[in-house]
Amino acid sequence: MRKGIYVRLPQDLKDWIEAEAARNGASQNSEVIRALRAAKEANQAAHDAA
Questions:
Q1: Number of domains making up the chain
Q2: Could you tell me where the DSSP H helices lie in 1-50?
Q3: Rg of the chain's alpha carbons, rounded to an integer?
Q4: How far, in Å, CA of 17 to CA of 21, rounded?
Q5: Residue 1 predicted with pLDDT over 90
Q6: Domain encompassing residue 33
Q7: pLDDT of 8-19, one tens digit each?
Q8: φ and ψ of 38, to 5 deg
Q9: b/e string for 17-41 if b means 16 or more Cβ within 10 A?
Q10: Which tens digits make up the pLDDT trace of 10-47?
Q11: Does a structural domain hold residue 5?
Q12: How many CB atoms lie within 10 A of CB 14?
């Protein structure tokens, strides 16, 4: 069973997630996951290069 978390987003990020979800035909949850995974991969790549 997955546990949910609640995140309070600044309005500009909420608007961006909503727009990205509409553009990609995806849910806002999916867009948050996509963005977090992209940030995680970028962070990991930066650490691996160091």
A1: 1
A2: 11-24, 28-49
A3: 13
A4: 6
A5: no
A6: 11-49
A7: 999 999 999 999
A8: -65, -45
A9: beebbeeeeeeeeebbeeeeeeeee
A10: 999 999 999 999 999 999 999 999 999 999 999 999 99
A11: no
A12: 13
